[in-house]
C-alpha cells in the first residue's frame, strides 16, 4: 500500500508509522551491509598487496 492510503484510512496513522519505521530499518540494514562489503573488499585488496 502507498503511504497516503495509510494516512487517510481510519486508524491509519499507526500503520503509517509502522510503515515508515520498517522503511527506515530496511535502509539502515542495507547501509550497514554495504559498508561491511566495502570494508571486506578493502581488506582483501590490501591482503593481495
Helicity level: over 70%
End-to-end Cα distance: 50 Å
| Large-scale geometry | rod-shaped
Low-confidence stretches: none
- How many β strands by DSSP? 0
Order of helices and strands: HH
Class computed from helices, strands and strand pairing: mainly alpha
Rg measurement, Å: 19 Å
- What value does the average pLDDT take? 79
Largest sheet: none
Tally of discrete structural domains? 1
Quaternary state of the chains: single chain
Strand content: under 5%
Supply the number of helical segments: 2
Question: Would you give an account of this structure?
Answer:
The protein is an all-alpha fold. The protein has one domain. 88% of the residues lie in helices and 0% in strands. The longest helix has 37 residues, at 12-48. It is rod-shaped and about 60 Å long. It starts with a helix and ends with a helix. The relative contact order is 0.09. The mean pLDDT is 79.
